[in-house]
Amino acid sequence: MSAIQWTEWITLDAKPEPMRKKVRGGEMLVMPSPYDVPDAVRAGYDFGANELVIQFRYIESDSAIVRDIRQVAKMYVGRHSGRLMGIAVSVDGFPRDSEVGRAAEHIKRALKRARPLRPEREENFRIAQRGFERTQSRVVEALAAPLGQ
Amino acid sequence: MRTGRRVFYWAVVSVLWISVAALAVIATLKLSKPERFVAPFDNVIARVAAVGVDFAPVFAFALALAQAIRPFLLSPAQFDAIHRILTGLRDYVVGTQTGVPYHFDRATLFRRRRFYLPLNPKRWRRWPMSGWLVPFERSGEATRHRGSCFLAPDDGDRAEGVAGQTWAQKNIVFVPPPNDPPLPDLTHTSSEAEMQEYARRSFVEVAWVRQWLRDHKRGLATRYVGIPVEVKSRVWGVIVLDLRSPATQTAQDANLKLIATCMSAILGRGR
Asked: What is the pTM assigned to this prediction?
């Protein structure tokens, strides 16, 4: 994710849901770790690769590894944490006003298809997806603004 | 334990600075020309320089060793900051309650270690290489020098206690769930059935509960909250809130994200 023109960070309203679990006869309420809940998202356009990219921000930063999502998009996953760091989708050049919304929809679909590399990160992927869906309109707005549309 | 950590930290820092100073002095004396000084200083400088050169490798080794150890040590200021955060969390959740001893409710930071062998042979219950959560720092001023260690092996199914379960789940854990009845309020006269229920619901062995009550002659917490702490994107340890008095605030209301952020920033500093 280099040479990208980024928007400002947009606060994510990702409300994690608690879940009851039973372990060896004892019950507990489990809430996602604060490290698994992204607190902000930003979008950007990669002029070199012609890609629209979104990036999530967490408490702890991590270097990312890239994986394909069914050859239609790329996901950036934390090397040590396995968390979803970002999603990139190919676009046909600089997105115009109407195309920004469509590209955001494309990202939303890619987020739904993205599968974690580790099973324990399932909830993190779900939270990131839900958070993006809630803030999608603000991301589109922010993305259109710096591109002068 | 606290004093020991402080002494060790200052010993390493002292070795580091003494080695730097000694190497600087040796280099200066070696480069200086003793014949330019008046007697008896010329002789003294020449002899000190000659002896110093012999000791230079020792100082260089000490410097390298201290420099290698230093990033793994926390300074007293970092410990103080961790202590304040834990005390702040405990105070927020419990609030000010008159008539309740302060140490009834505690926040403890546990560090995960691959190897741990307690000093007391009575506590040699398991293989020391199993993976353990060992108390690192605690809120308040009482009961800071002792604490139980919990099994936290790679096989999460065998993790013990709320600390172990938090480690295994790598998530925030409430035991029992907030709207459920609290764990039995045990004393050393409690029945075997109550002890068994407590052990089952808090993921420890009955023998551990029995031993605790026999050794400490005081009750165990009735509610627990476990919070994972990460450093450089890896789980470093856990914070466990153990509460005996009815809390005025739920831990869910506390800004656990902010606490986790501060902990990671302090523990990860210099690494």
From this structure: 0.83
